[in-house]
Write a structure and sequence with these properties.
The complex is a heterodimer. Chain A is of the alpha/beta class. Helix content of chain A is 32%, strand content 21%. Chain B has 13 helices and no strands. Chain B is globular and about 80 Å long. The chains are: A alpha/beta, B mainly alpha.
């Protein structure tokens, strides 16, 4: 096992003994010793993470474990108390154009009068800024993004008339309109049934050819087959730079006996099937 | 009818009705879609302190209500963001304290508070030319701002959190939207009064939302619907001899129910037709 993560060499040494910590050359997302707190409550403690190009990283962890906070730190919405966050070597807020973001259950308002096209085009805001109207280029980019997720023929449909899975695709299209290099997804599988989930992940899989994908979820069962790497977060981050998760890590992260999810293979919980 | 239009107060009332319909059509859509009807109610009731203030210092009540309703709008937005007090607690506080402040101002002023009731329940027949000028300027400011920032307000209304991630200045835009609502309230006070303002802010837009499916078309249709409601209410109140503001509100409510009933019947018909074609094929 060759951990590609960078930090907390101290903890790494403690937990994995003699294993070497290699510092990767290129980190698209480079988080070093980041601490985040809401008031006096520490949410993320000394997190270090390096996401390399074309990675497909699933971050799992219990609700309230700081997954969304970690994503918000990467988008620059939350500034860390301590530590540094670099996206493509820059401050996250300067890289908005290169980050596609799919928020948690994207605030769906039943009956909202917006078409699929209009919702997807919102993503172009990062390109436009205040007061400039959307133009032909924006329309073209929007249609291309919808094409990519297979939703182009629904462009004039009202967003609330779509199924949960189709809507999820539209939100991905919205994240893709600026042709980002990094796609962040927050609990993308909430409210989609398992057939749609399979389609959804195969879409992500296709996108992964040209994009680095990072997503968080509390649902362990979905991540194993699709991702390249898995990290666990519950205030601190447990990341071995591959798809295996140690039993102790899971127990530490979830505070519960993991037999429930281990399928009788206690030490290699999420190995390839 | 032509005889009626010979009166200046009636002509002014009609122009006021048109301005109110335009401003409500535009702002009302954001109010109902963003579900901030009660924030708007809070701003409206707080603006009563502006009415009271005008008695105290003897200035044009429209000018002082502009000031006080803007204060209300900015404080609601500020308290919500910075103090993180529950939104409805904030609204409750401002709602009542504004009314209380207004009553204290009126009590402190010398002389008898004439026409106080018309600020509470509106009096479209008492709109002067001066009032019309102010209303026109406010409507222009609000409509131009809303059109110029259409893209931003749309994102703010649909998905504020996403907008924030994309770099949309959501806090400032929220304050701006509340200020637009505050100015709308000022225009409407003359027509339906502090207490009935929410009716015109919501009913035309809600009625229009039943019929149209894009934000733009809802706005345009809401303007037309608002116009029908206010003009019908105005003439009805004249012929039946009732309070104008209250009549406009009741006409609007009835109008909303007629349209929603019509929509229900149409949906049922469609369902039946669909079933029939499904069975026959």
């Amino acid at each position: 096992m060759r951990p590609t993560w960078k930090t907390s060499p101290k903890r790494c040494a403690k937990e994995w003994g003699d294993e070497r910590v290699t510092a990767p050359e290129e980190c698209i997302v480079d988080i070093r010793n980041v601490w985040v707190s809401y008031g006096e409550h520490i949410v993320l403690k000394d997190i270090t993470l390096c996401v390399e190009e074309n990675d497909f990283l699933g971050i799992i962890g219990p609700n309230g474990g700081g997954k969304t906070t970690l994503l918000k730190t990467i988008t620059g919405e939350i500034s860390p108390l301590r530590g540094s966050v670099r996206i493509f070597g820059n401050h996250p807020r300067k890289e908005k154009r290169h980050i596609g973001y799919v928020p948690q259950y994207s605030h769906h308002i039943e009956g909202f009068p917006a078409t699929v096209f209009e919702v997807a085009r919102m993503g172009r805001y990062a390109n436009k800024g205040l007061l400039r109207q959307f133009d032909e280029d924006d329309a073209e980019a929007t249609m291309q993004a919808l094409e990519r997720v297979g939703m182009a023929r629904y462009s004039d449909t009202q967003i609330s008339k779509l199924s949960g899975g189709q809507r999820q695709r539209v939100f991905i299209a919205r994240a893709l309109v600026n042709e980002p290099s990094l796609l962040l997804l927050d609990e993308p599988n909430v409210g989609i049934d398992s057939t749609m989930q399979r389609e959804f992940y195969s879409l992500l899989h296709d996108l992964n050819d040209s994009l680095t994908i990072l997503f968080v979820t509390h649902d362990l069962s979905v991540v194993s087959r699709h991702v390249k790497n898995i990290a666990c977060v519950n205030k601190t981050l447990y990341y071995h730079g591959n798809k295996e998760i140690k039993r102790e890590d899971l127990e530490r992260v979830y505070n519960c006996p993991i037999e429930l999810i281990a399928h009788g293979v206690p030490h290699r919980v999420l190995e390839e099937h | 009818m032509e005889g009626l239009l010979a009166y200046e107060f009636m002509r002014n009332a009609l122009v006021a009705g048109v301005l109110a319909s335009v401003i409500c059509g535009v702002v009302g859509v954001y109010v109902i879609l963003k579900r901030i009807v009660f924030i708007s109610g809070g701003i409206a009731h707080f603006s009563f302190s502006g009415v009271g203030f005008s008695y105290l210092v003897d200035i044009n009540p429209m000018l002082s209500t502009i000031l006080f309703s803007l204060v209300a709008a900015l404080s609601i937005g500020w308290i919500k963001e910075k103090i993180r007090l529950d939104e409805d607690s904030t609204i409750g506080m401002l709602w009542a304290s504004g009314m209380a402040l207004g009553i204290i101002f009126v009590g402190l002023s010398k002389g008898y508070a004439t026409e106080l009731i018309s600020f509470l329940f509106g009096n479209i027949l008492a709109v002067s030319r001066e009032d019309l000028a102010v209303m026109f300027v406010l409507t222009a400011i609000v409509v131009i701002t809303a059109v110029a920032l259409f893209k931003e307000l749309f994102i703010l209304t649909y998905d504020e959190d996403y907008g924030r991630v994309m770099g949309l200045p959501t806090y400032s835009l929220n304050l701006l939207l509340l200020c637009l609502i505050a100015l709308t309230v000022v225009v409407l006070i003359k027509i339906v009064g502090v207490i009935l303002v929410i009716a015109l802010l919501t009913i035309p837009a809600a009625t229009s939302k039943l019929l149209a499916s894009t934000i733009r078309s809802i706005m345009v249709l809401a303007i037309g619907i608002g116009l029908v409601f206010t003009v019908t209410g105005l003439f009805l109140s004249y012929y039946v001899d009732l309070a104008s503001g209250a009549t406009i509100v009741i006409v609007s409510t009835i109008g909303f129910f007629i349209v929603s009933l019509f929509q229900k019947v149409r949906a049922k018909k469609k369902r039946k037709e669909y079933l029939r074609t499904e069975v026959s094929t």
